[in-house]
Amino acid sequence: MTFLRVGGALVATYVVDPPLDIRLAPRPYLHPVRTLGGAVVTDELCFDHPWHLGASVTVADVNGWNLWGGRTFVRDQGYTWLDDHGAIRHDGWLSARGGLSEKLRWCDGDDRTLLTERRDITASAAPGGWELSFRYALTTAPGLEVSLGSPATHGRTGEAGYGGFFWRLPAGRAVTDQPHGSTAPSVTVTVDDRYALTFAGLAGADRWFLRTGGYNGVCAALAWEKPLVIPAGETLARHLRVLIRDLV
């Protein structure tokens, strides 16, 4: 584990190599993330979706491999347990002036590399709280095109285009200022009138996947309606920012 601090306050723990069952799509993630006042604003290993791991990058279909965790949505069958799970593995630290800079490998079930990733995470003071900056860049190998998909791209209705930077919030009464599927520049989630998180950083055809019933979660979704294809030898980059504020 490693840690992020703002002004001496511990605001986030980064779990680098979690010892998890492959069916949970093991990957590095942030948890717990806290407000400056100490309120925990992430959740992990939840009873309803144990593969929801704090704040992480996670995709349901990477060239046919499930790097989200749990059951796979199969067209005309629904969610089905398959032997198709992969993992995102820490592959070394990079020099960074502040925060964390990391190399990762996105691997299939046989540990073959599907994508390489550069990830940069920083925490800084911001008006009313602090801001998390989360950059990730996914690069394909020469000669290997990679398709990123979601349950929606496999036929699930109900705007289930999740996959990308995903944040699982704790249980509570959550309210968002944008609708599910929005393309707004930012979305704010308020939980129990105790804290608020403002997410920003959509790019391309990304959408906000928002859940406040059953569980609370936010995803900057990459494959909302159609697969997102990364051509061979090219890079897909995103920069998400999350403003985290106490309200009481």
Write a brief structural summary.
With 248 residues, the chain is mainly β. It has no helices and 20 strands.
Structure report:
This protein has strands at 2-6, 9-15, 29-33, 55-62, 65-67, 72-74, 78-80, 87-93, 100-107, 113-126, 129-139, 146-149, 164-169, 174-176, 186-191, 195-200, 207-211, 216-221, 228-230, 235-246. By secondary structure, the protein is mostly beta strands. The chain has one domain (2-246): Beta-galactosidase, Chain A, domain 5 (Distorted Sandwich). It has an eight-stranded antiparallel beta sheet, with no helix packed on it. Strand 15 (186-191) and strand 16 form a beta hairpin.
List the helices and strands and how they pair.
Elements: E1 2-6, E2 9-15, E3 29-33, E4 55-62, E5 65-67, E6 72-74, E7 78-80, E8 87-93, E9 100-107, E10 113-126, E11 129-139, E12 146-149, E13 164-169, E14 174-176, E15 186-191, E16 195-200, E17 207-211, E18 216-221, E19 228-230, E20 235-246
Antiparallel strand pairs: 1-2, 2-3, 4-5, 4-12, 4-13, 6-7, 8-9, 9-10, 10-11, 11-20, 12-19, 13-18, 14-15, 15-16, 16-20, 17-18
GO molecular function: monooxygenase activity
Organism: Paractinoplanes brasiliensis
Keywords: Monooxygenase, Oxidoreductase
Name some characteristics of this structure.
single chain; 248 residues; mainly beta; Beta-galactosidase, Chain A, domain 5; eight-stranded antiparallel sheet; seven-stranded antiparallel sheet; 20 strands; 50% strand; DUF6807; oxidoreductase; monooxygenase; monooxygenase activity; Methane monooxygenase PmoA-like
